[in-house]
Amino acid sequence: MESVSRREGVDLSAVLAIVAGALMLAGGIVALSMMGMWTSQYGMTMMQGWPNNGGGMGMMGGAGGGWGMMSGRFMSATIWTAVAISLGAGIVSVVGGYSIYRDNAGSSIWGIAILIAGVVGLIVMSGFFVGPILGIIGGILALVRK
Q: How many CA atoms does the CB half-sphere of 43 hold within 13 Å?
């Protein structure tokens, strides 16, 4: 029989990485839309302080003046950073999964990138918690393949 150099089927690590990246991108987009709704409806109220809160201080003792740890500006910057990290991890995972699908030669390098993206996504809770877990599994499978 002839040996077939082309592999049959789709690599599981590539599929897991692409699905994980899609979930992380979807999570980032959902968080981005939630952030837009929050800033348009509640953001100005949080930054200006509530009307009957005694001296203009908002929730957590500092949101009214914008100087406290839980101020509107701090929360906004934190959420924007988490959204950016989620979107970046999703892009790395999708590109890595597609690269593994197209060329098996670089699967160990892309496996490391997918694994790191999954861990980072797990830290910022992106991808509805399932995405980073699938990314970690996909990265490990890409690393242990022979």
A: 13
Residue at 131: amino acid letter: G
Supply 5's token pair: 């150099």
Residue 39, φ and ψ in degrees, nearest 5 = -70, -30
List of E strands, 80-132: none
Summarize pLDDT for 105-144 with one digit per residue, the tens.
889 999 999 999 999 999 999 899 999 999 999 999 999 9
Does residue 50 sit in helix, strand or coil? coil
Does pTM top 0.85 for this prediction?
no
Rounded Cα distance, 114 and 96, in Å: 6
Taking CA atoms, 53 is separated from 38, 47, 59, 120, in Å, by 21, 13, 9, 38
